[in-house]
């Protein structure tokens, strides 16, 4: 069993535009693999893809907005982890 899904399958399943997927890929928000001229998304990237698709289609957030939100959430998580680590060191 493969641990990836093709871009074409994603477009059909999620009813998205290929250009949206390509924009996510080009902006570095998604890590993909290409084999025999077919682009694949690893299953481990699916939660991020679904989150971005929801933001874009349901909340009407554009690609630059998705990049900013994703970056800020990553920073928040890093700060949360650092905070936890510092609290543990104080004990």
UniProtKB/TrEMBL annotation:
<dbReference type="Pfam" id="PF13591">
    <property type="entry name" value="MerR_2"/>
</dbReference>
<protein>
    <submittedName>
        <fullName>MerR family transcriptional regulator</fullName>
    </submittedName>
</protein>
